[in-house]
Amino acid sequence: MTLVKQVSMNCHSERLSLARGISCSVLIGGFYAFSLCAFGQDSGSLRSVSASISCDTQSNSESQSHEQDKSHKSAKNKKSNEQDGLSATMFSEAVANAVIRRLRDGLEGHSQRVILSIFDPEKMNDYSGFENQIEAFFNHYETFRTHLRMVQATTDGEKGTVITEVEMEAIPHGDAPPVRKQNQLRFELERSSKGWKIVELNPRDFFS
User: Exposed (0-12), middle (13-18) or buried (19+): which is 160, by Cβ within 10 Å?
Assistant: First the structure.
C-alpha cells in the first residue's frame, strides 16, 4: 500500500513539474519556452516543437520581407509621381510642388546630386559657379533641417515661376552652433528634354 502511494505521489510530482514548465512557456514565450516544454516530451514531440519554431521563424521572415516590399514600392511610387510632375507638358502647381519636394529631399538627404538635378546646367547663368557654391555649402554643413512652403506659382509664357518660403537649420561640422536661415526663394523654370528645370534662382547666396 505504501509503495502504491509513493508511485502515485511521484507521478503527481512529475505532472506538476510539467505543468509548471507549460506555465513558464506562456509567460516567457519564444524559443526558451518551447525548450522548457520539450524537456518533458518524447522525441516525436521534440520534432513537433522544432517544426513549430521553424514555422514561426519563417512567418517572421515573410512578414519582414513583406514590409520591405511595401516600403520599396512606396518609395518607387513617390519617385514615379515626382517624375510625372516634372515631366508634365504644362506648368502647374503640381510641377512647382515636385520641384519643392526635390529641393527638400536633396537638403535633408544631404545630396548634392539630388539638389543639382533640378537645375538646368545649359540654361542657368554661371551654372559652374553655382555648382561650386553648392559643393562648398554641403562641405561646410553636416545636416539640414528644412521647412518649405509654396507661396505662389505663376506662368509667364513658356516659363513657370515659383516663390517658396524656406526655413532652414544648418548644422556645421564640428562643435559650431547651428545656423538658421529664413527667406523667400524665387525660382524660374523652363521645360527641357528632361522635364522642368530651374533656370534661375534668387537670391543665390541663400545657399552659402
Answer: buried
Please determine, for residue 8, whether its predicted confidence score (pLDDT) is greater than 70: no
CATH code that applies to domain 87-207: 3.10.450.50
Q: Could you give the CA distance from residue 61 to residue 37 in angstroms, rounded to a whole number?
A: 24
* Separation CA 133–CA 117 (nearest Å): 15
What pLDDT was estimated at residue 58? 54
Q: Report the C-alpha gap between 7 and 207 in whole angstroms.
A: 87
pLDDT at site 85: 78
3-state DSSP call for residue 173?
coil
Parse the chain into domains and list their residue ranges.
2-66, 87-207
**Cα 138–chain centre separation:** 21
